[in-house]
Amino acid sequence: MSLQMDAAELMEFLDDIFPQVRGDFEVDDLSANEISMRLCVQEKHLRPGGTVSGPSMFALADCAAYAMVLARIGREALAVTTNCSIDFMRKPSAGADLIGTCKLLKLGRSLAVCDILIHSVDQDAPVARANMTYSIPPKC
């Protein structure tokens, strides 16, 4: 199946429907079954102890999965997360962006399943791994 939206269209759509996180995320790479999305780490993403917060890493995983699903199905703002499991494996760097690489494992009529691996740009080992399931609204 081909892409319904390219990286620029995805970012424009995300900026329109989620203006509260405008500037937080960028698409680095996009193909039919994989997207690499960047969290542009800022002071607001940090927690005490000099690391990126868990909620910020969750947001990256969720945004990457959402963008991957939208890239395939098109502009469908009402696709929603129905399940998430995230493993925080090591401390990310406070001064480095995070990259979430999302692989689309299954895209059905009503559900999509994605796996996301998150790295700090200055570390080889992953800092977190997430599995996300999205519900896709029926076509009316």
From TrEMBL:
InterPro entries: HotDog_dom_sf, PAAI_dom, Thioestr_dom. Keywords: Hydrolase. This is Thioesterase. Pfam families: 4HBT. It comes from the Bacteria. Residues 49-124 form the Thioesterase domain. The keyword Kinase does not apply.
